[in-house]
Design a protein that fits this description.
four-stranded antiparallel sheet; 180 residues; 3 helices; alpha+beta; 32% helix
């Protein structure tokens, strides 16, 4: 099977979600909204960049359950029943702690030669390096670049004077396959 897709990521939502698949020549996003599925194909040879950053509103996720469960818990604790109040407040605190432990939610932008698209690539920022490494390896394979991770190259660049004639060295440029 020359064009087999393998799932690399899934980002769920209340109305559906997005699943990401990687094949030998493309990256496929299957965005489901209720009962419809929209497919977006990004050819690896056309990818310019993929940027993942923490969402600005991620801190709201732990605040909402702590307020919604903590306030009734405190009121119940004080006026009605200590046990019921402790259950509500404890649940709110546990939910907020769990959200903080998972870390910030992520947003992503994919830029190709023809378009720029914002689609969720990963749910949390901490998962982004693993997914981007898989995509980077696939891009390197398609473009025929070496499989070594990108690192700055010390020494003069082609077309520049050597170190004996110049007292400084030029900064190294990143190869085309570097998506991170």
């Amino acid at each position: 099977m020359p064009n087999a897709f393998r799932k690399i990521s899934r980002v769920g939502s209340l109305s559906g979600g997005t699943r990401w698949y990687l094949s030998e020549d493309c990256l496929l996003a299957a965005k489901r909204v209720m009962y419809a599925v929209e497919y977006r194909r990004f050819y690896l040879c056309d990818l310019e960049s993929i940027v993942v950053w923490p969402s600005r509103w991620w801190i709201v996720r732990p605040i909402i359950p702590s307020v919604l469960l903590g306030t009734p818990g405190a009121l119940l604790w004080h006026w009605a029943n200590f046990v019921a109040g402790a259950i509500f407040a404890g649940t709110g605190l546990a939910w907020a702690s769990f959200e903080l432990a998972l870390g910030p939610t992520a947003r992503a932008r994919i830029r190709t030669t023809g378009a720029t698209v914002e689609l969720p690539l990963v749910k949390r920022v901490r998962r982004a390096p693993q997914v981007l490494a898989k995509i980077d390896a696939a891009v390197r394979a398609v473009r025929g670049l070496n499989q070594q991770p990108t690192a700055p190259v010390a020494g003069p660049q082609p077309g520049e004077p050597s170190a004996q004639t110049s007292s400084h060295t030029a900064p190294a440029s990143a190869p085309l396959g570097d998506l991170t």
